[in-house]
Specification:
Helix content: 25-40%
Order of helices and strands: EHEHEHEHEHEEEEHHHEE
Bound molecules: calcium ion
Strand order of the largest sheet: 2-1-3-4-5
Number of strands: 11
CATH superfamily of the largest domain: Response regulator
CATH topology of the largest domain: Rossmann fold
Strand content: 15-25%
CATH class of the largest domain: Alpha Beta
Shape: elongated
Distance between the termini: 27 Å
Length: about 220
């Protein structure tokens, strides 16, 4: 899952970047409103974390603009404590949630997870397909009762697949949701990681769950059901 953080305060920005990366998100950062808006309109994000007081363009203007342009990505606003008017204005402009500073990282993470659930079919946790389970809270994966150790990228891939069971995901979609803006689009990075993931998730188990759809992408599905 890919997140855009628009936050100008360096200490808060680095705290968010570090925490979100550790939680297996692909994270893009903007330290001013103008870059933040441009990135929000150009790239595909699963969630946007938006500070309201920003140089260049404030958070309210960004929110108004992304909603006018019909970007429906969930937005969490970061507000000053006691700034009730800001919260109301943000929610009225199309924010999905807000968090008053200072906040605990675990609360932000729980709110992001809640927003990710809202945008899709409601998933029980863990997500189960055949004998594979993906626990998106514990970020753990088991198959046939055995724990599977995955790298952060492999985990992000399987979570993205698990949230979209049965849906063919193109390489572009996978890049947009699992990698941040710094990836090199010319490399075969996706295929390499999917091959590694497959070895861990499918080798030695039956049936295979990760399928290649020639010319289209990949899909997680159980052909036995
Ligand atoms: Ca700020």
């Amino acid at each position: 899952m890919r997140v855009l953080v628009i936050e100008d305060e360096p200490s808060v920005a680095s705290f968010l970047k570090k925490g979100l990366c550790e939680a297996s998100f692909a994270v893009d950062m903007a330290d001013n409103g103008v870059d933040g808006l441009r990135m929000a309109l150009t790239n595909t994000y699963d969630t946007i974390v938006l500070d309201l007081m920003l140089p260049g363009m404030d958070g309210f203007s960004i929110l108004r603009e992304v909603r006018v342009r019909e970007v429906t990505t969930p937005v969490i606003c970061l507000t000053a404590r006691d700034a009730v008017d800001d919260r109301i204005k943000g929610l009225d402009l199309g924010a999905d949630d807000y968090l008053a500073k200072p906040f605990s990282f675990s609360e932000l993470l729980a709110r992001i997870r809640a927003l990710l659930r809202r945008g899709q079919e409601l998933h029980a946790n863990p997500i189960t397909i055949g004998d594979l389970t993906v626990d998106v809270v514990a970020r753990s994966v088991h198959r046939g009762g055995r724990r599977i150790d995955l790298s952060p990228t492999e985990y992000s891939l399987i979570e993205y697949f698990a949230r979209n069971i049965g849906q063919v995901l193109s390489r572009t979609m996978i890049l947009e949701h699992v990698w941040d803006i710094n990836h090199d689009p010319m490399t075969n990075v996706i295929d390499v990681h999917i091959n590694r993931l497959r070895k861990k998730v499918d080798n030695g188990f039956d049936p295979p769950l990760i399928h290649t759809i020639r010319g289209a992408g990949y899909v997680l599905r159980n052909d036995r059901t």
